[in-house]
């Protein structure tokens, strides 16, 4: 299966936006690159840029492998990508508002009612609740891939609940500037370092009405969460407090933070805690991560949450197939970015096709994440396929299937030297009074030869992402 090469045409000629970098790269030896990679690993470990793997009972913190060869996107391609991402996130926010208010898209028969109102991510507690500016997904991390001979962009997933990875985007850039300052003199690379400022502006813009100088906090589940480094990093970069549920309390429908100077009112919570754990009085009563009474304060409009409760209804693989129709329904526009063709296994015909073509398809749990609960048919054994077939037959509504795309490849420094490896891209879209984003994102790379799974929990690494003139 031939894939799009980010750096070279099929005749091996270097693409224009990689030409300057390629000339620099050929002057470097493998030994020099290896030394720089070892230096990067050491620096990342000193800073504490690690993650915990779900299900790893040892609790070992790991480095996400960092590749020194950047993924480069020319301005023209980035402008198309940015326009498509803005359009998509705008439609998703309108969809979430509609789901919890007038239900027009359901009445129109475009999205089936059962797909929404029996969905595990639907929150009836949010029905009729008005959120500031009508924005639910303030931070969206949209996974984009390129495939086909022409490298067409496709949206693979919409991550709207608590999307992670932006700290690695920022730290990767800092590392590249430290190791290779000459590259940033030679190339006009769009900056990404201002992302925390954009994030803080976005969070402040959705503060409750009448609050002129909002207090913003980052709510973390705690140090044992796999993304805890990112929580601490973003709080530090924004200059706001990092809090856990036990640091907050609700009084008279206002949220307060415990401080050494006494209680301090909190206006905006950037929460990195899933809905189910946010308020033990409303959701899971065994949760020690949330704040009792938070839902009541939220419904009263006394505090803003980013992202909003109930946003997960649009962050679900069973809703994903309808996003192109959402764009046309709410915006009256044709989608700029395409979805990957998707079979919904709850439909008998789609299920029959999927079962007949399992060795060729990628099958995913509709609520799955992190590369777990999925089958990559071409990379699986017969035994794995048959085991997955039984799970699929037992619970077809819990899965979707997609063709196995030949993800684009980017030169990557591996043990054998420089070789192509498959990649994706997660740009981060911020929605408040305006929709903003930095020109870049987190490029994830599948380090194993032939692998299409880029998730860090499955052995993937990351790269710096350059948008260049």
TrEMBL record:
Residues 70-446 form the Circularly permuted ATP-grasp type domain. It holds the Pfam family CP_ATPgrasp_2. InterPro entries: ATP-dep_Glu-Cys_Ligase-2 (IPR051680), CP_ATPgrasp_2 (IPR025841), UCP005522 (IPR016450). SUPFAM superfamilies: Glutathione synthetase ATP-binding domain-like (SSF56059). This is Circularly permuted ATP-grasp type 2 domain-containing protein. It comes from Paraburkholderia phytofirmans (strain DSM 17436 / LMG 22146 / PsJN).
């Amino acid at each position: 299966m031939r894939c799009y090469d980010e750096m070279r045409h099929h005749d091996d000629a270097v693409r224009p936006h990689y030409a300057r970098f390629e000339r620099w790269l050929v002057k470097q030896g493998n030994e020099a690159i290896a030394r720089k990679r070892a230096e990067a690993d050491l620096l990342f470990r000193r800073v504490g840029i690690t993650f915990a793997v779900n299900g790893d009972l040892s609790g070992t913190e790991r480095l996400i492998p960092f590749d020194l060869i950047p993924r480069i996107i020319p301005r023209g391609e980035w402008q198309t990508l940015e326009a498509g991402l803005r359009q998509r996130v705008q439609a998703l926010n309108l969809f979430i508002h509609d789901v919890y208010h007038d239900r027009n898209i359901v009445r129109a028969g475009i999205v089936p009612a059962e797909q929404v109102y029996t969905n595990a991510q639907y929150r009836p507690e949010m029905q009729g609740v008005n959120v500031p500016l009508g924005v639910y997904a303030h931070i969206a991390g949209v996974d984009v891939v390129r495939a086909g001979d022409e490298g067409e962009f496709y949206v693979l997933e919409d991550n709207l609940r608590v999307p992670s990875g932006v700290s690695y985007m920022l730290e990767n850039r800092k590392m590249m500037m430290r190791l290779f300052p000459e590259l940033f003199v030679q190339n006009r690379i769009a900056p990404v370092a201002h992302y925390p400022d954009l994030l803080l502006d976005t969070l402040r813009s959705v503060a409750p009405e009448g609050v002129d100088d909002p207090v913003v906090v980052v709510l973390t589940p705690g140090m044992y969460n796999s993304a805890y480094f990112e929580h601490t990093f973003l709080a530090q970069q924004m200059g706001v407090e990092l809090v856990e549920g036990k640091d907050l309390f609700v009084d008279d429908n206002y949220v307060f933070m415990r401080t050494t100077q006494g209680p301090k009112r909190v206006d905006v919570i950037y929460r990195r805690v899933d809905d189910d754990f946010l308020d033990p009085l409303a959701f899971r009563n065994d949760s020690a991560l949330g704040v009792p009474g938070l839902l009541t304060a939220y419904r009263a409009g006394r505090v803003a949450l980013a992202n909003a409760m109930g946003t997960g209804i649009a962050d679900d693989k069973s809703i994903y197939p309808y996003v192109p129709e959402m764009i046309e329904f709410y915006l009256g526009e044709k989608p700029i970015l395409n979805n990957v063709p998707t079979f919904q296994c709850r439909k008998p015909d789609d299920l029959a096709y999927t079962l007949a073509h399992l060795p060729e398809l990628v099958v995913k749990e509709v609520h799955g994440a992190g590369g777990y609960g999925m089958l990559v048919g071409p990379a699986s054994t017969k035994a794995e396929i048959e085991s997955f077939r039984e799970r699929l037959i037992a619970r077809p509504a819990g899965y979707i299937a997609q063709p196995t795309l030949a993800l684009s490849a980017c030169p990557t420094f591996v043990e054998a030297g420089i070789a192509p490896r498959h990649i994706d891209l997660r740009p981060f879209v911020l929605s408040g009074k305006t929709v903003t984003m930095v020109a870049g994102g987190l490029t994830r790379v599948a380090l194993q030869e032939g692998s299409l799974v880029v998730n860090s929990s499955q052995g993937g690494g990351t790269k710096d992402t350059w948008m260049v003139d």
